[in-house]
Amino acid sequence: MIFEPFGEKHADDALALWNAELGASYPMRPRLLRQNTLEDTRWLREGSWAALEPQTGELAGFVVAKAPHGDDDRFGLRGDVGWIQALLVAAGRRGRGVGGELLRRAESALRQAGASRVQLGNDLHRRLFPGIPGELEETRRWFERRGYVHREDVFDLIKAYDANEASVMPDTGAAAARLAGPSDREALTAFMTRCFPGTWDLQHRDYWAQGGSGREYVLLERDGAIIGFCRINDAESPLLAQNVYWAPLFEEALGGIGPLGIDEAYRGHRYGISIVEAAICFLRVRGIRRIVIDTTPFVDFYGKLGYRTWKTYGKFDKTLAAATGGSTG
Question: For the chain, first and last CA: distance in Å?
Answer without folding.
Answer: 15
